[in-house]
Amino acid sequence: GGRPRYEVVRELGAEEVRWFYREDRKTWKPFIGYDSLRIELAFRALGGSGGDGEPAAVEPVCVRSGLYEVDVASAESYPVYWNQTEKIPVMRGQWFIDGTWQPLEEEESNLIEQEHLNRFKGQQLQESFDMEVSKPVDGKEAIHSLKLSRNHVDWHSVDEVYLYSDATTSKIARTVTQKLGFSKASSSGTRLHRGYVEEATLEDKPPQTSHIVFVVHGIGQKMDQGRIIKNTAMMRDTARKVEEKYFSNLATHVEFLPVEWRSKLTLDGDTVDSITPDKVRGLRDMLNSSAMDIMYYTSPLYRDELVKGLQQELNRLYTLFCSRNPEFEEKGGKVSIVSHSLGCVITYDIMTGWNPVRLYEQLLQKEEEELEDRWMSYEEQRLLEELYITKQRLREIEERLHGLKASTIAKPPVLKFKVENFFCMGSPLAVFLALRGIRPGNSGSQDHILPRTICNRLLNIFHPTDPVAYRLEPLILKHYSNISPVQIHWYNTANPLPYEHMKPSFLNPTKEATSVPDSESASAAPSPTTSPVLVRRHYGESITNIGKASILGAASIGKGLGGMLFSRFGRSSTTPQSMETGKEGAEGEDKKATTVGTPPLPHSSSGFLEPTVELEHRIDFELREGLVESRYWSAVTSHTAYWSSLDIALFLLTFMYKQDQEETDKSNLDTI
User: Which of 182, 193, 398, 569 sits at 20 to 30 Å (Cα–Cα) from 129?
Assistant: First the structure.
C-alpha cells in the first residue's frame, strides 16, 4: 500500500497512526497527514495510552485548515469560528480493515495492538514482495489467537491477521464452509492491517488561505439557527471540489466562514409570540421567524439592532481569523462577502452607512421649504425666524462638539476590512433601493448604487424563478431592463467564454431598446412599486408577483420612517419626476435631494435616450434553469438552492482567483 514496512515488529510510529473524525454520525473520515501527525504528537505528550501520574496540559490542535480544534484529552473536535452544540468525536486508528481502510474501534484496536506487541515484538517481518505471492491463508492454522467481546482475532503469521465475528449465524456459516473444505480465513474473516495505508507527513498540508469569504444568512434563521452553518459547509465542500478540478495548480485557497448574526439578538423578547393566535400555529411560527425579520428591519426601533448584530459579528470573525493567521494581512489577504436574501440589504447598509434618519432629515428640510412659500402672518413669520436662528445656533454647537470629539478619538471604520467582492444571492436589494428613491442614471458605473471605494465589485446572482430576487442593473441604466442577465456557465462546460467577453443580448429582440413611450414610463415613475425598472415579463409572471407582493407587503406593514417619507413625497409631488432623489439614497455624499419644481435631468424622462451607454461591469448573473424542473416547484425551492450549486461555486471562485491572478501578473511585470 505504498507504506515502507519495517523489517522488525516494533511500536507503531507516529506517522503510521492515523486520526479520524466523524460528523453527523456518518463514517469515520481520516485527517490529512499534517493534522494527524500533530494530533498524535499531542496525544503522546499527554502521556499516550496508559501514561502514569497527572497528564500534562496540552494545547488544542488546530485542524482542517484552521476551522476546527481537537482536544486530545476529551477526544473531541469543535469549530473555532462558530458555535455548534454537537461535538465531533475524534479517534486514533492503529488497526484497519482491508479494502476500506476504516479504523477498528479504539478499545479493540488497543487490545489487538497490545497482544501483537507482546507476542511478536522484535520478530522478523517477511519481505513485502514475498508477502504478495505467499500462499493464501487457506491451509494455515492460526499461530496465535485473541478473544474479544463479540469477535476474535487470529494471527496466521506476523503479517496475516484476521478478525472473525462470533455471532451465532457466522458460527453456523463457518462450520458449514469448513466441512465443504473452504478455508476458515477467507470465508468469514476480515483481513486487518497494522498502520494506515499511507504515512502521515507534515508536507501533506492544506494550502495557505489567501481569500476569506463571509457567508451572511437572510431571513428565517430564528427557525433553524444551525442552518447557515450547514449551508456554508455545503458551499465550502462544493468549492473544494471545484478548487480540486479547476484551481489545483494554485498554492492558495479560499475559505468560507458562516456569519450567524440573528440568534444573539433579543429584539422584542417574546412579545410577538404572545400576540400570535394559536390556530395554524406552525404556519404562523414560520412566518414570525421569516417574514418578521423584514418587518424588524423596516422598524426604526429594531433596525439598528439588526445592523449592529451583523456588523459586530463580521468584525469579530475577521479579528479572530487574523489573530490565528497573522500572515494573512501581511500577504495582502482579501475579503469577500456572500449574502443571501435580506442579508444582502443589511450588508449593503453597513457598507454604505445608509440610514433612514437621513431620509427623515430630507423630509423636514422639504417641509421648511414649503412653509417659506406660503402666506403667513407677521407673528408667525417672527416666530419662524426665531426658530430658524435657534436651529442654526444648535447646528453650530453640535458641529463644534463633533469637532472636539473627532480630534480626541478617531472614529473607527464600520468594518475592519475592505470588501473585495460583494456577491448577492436571491437578493431583494433592488426593491429596497427603489423604495428609497434610487432611479437609473446615465453613467454605467457601479458607483451609482455602490461606490467602488467601498467595494470593488458588486455581483447579483439569482435563480430565474426565485420569487425574492430582483435585478440591479436597470437601477443603474434603465435600458438594461431589456437586456438579459448574464447566464452563469454550467460547471462542466468545456472552455467557457470568460464573463467579461460575453456580449449583452436583448430579452425581446423584436422590441427596440428605445421604444418605450415617454408617457408610459413617466406615468409609472411616481410610485416606486410600479416603476418599469422591475418589470420581468419573460419569467413566470405570477411567480415573480408572489415574491414582489410578499416583500412589498412586509415592507409596507413595517414601513417606519421610510414609508412615512414616501407617502409624503407621493402626496406633495408636483411633477412625476420629483421621485428622482438621485444618488442621495445610496451615498448621501454632499448632494441635496432633487426638490419639487426643479426640472428633471434629461435622462430621467424615459431612461432610453442613451441606449449606447453600457455598464462598466455586468452585475446581474442568472443561473441556467434545469431542463426538467417545473417552474412553480422551482419557485418554492429556488430561494434556498444556491448553497450546493457547483455552478455558483465555480462562479465565485472564478472571480476571486481571477483578481489574485491579475495582481500576481501585475507584480511580476513590476519586478521585471
Answer: 182
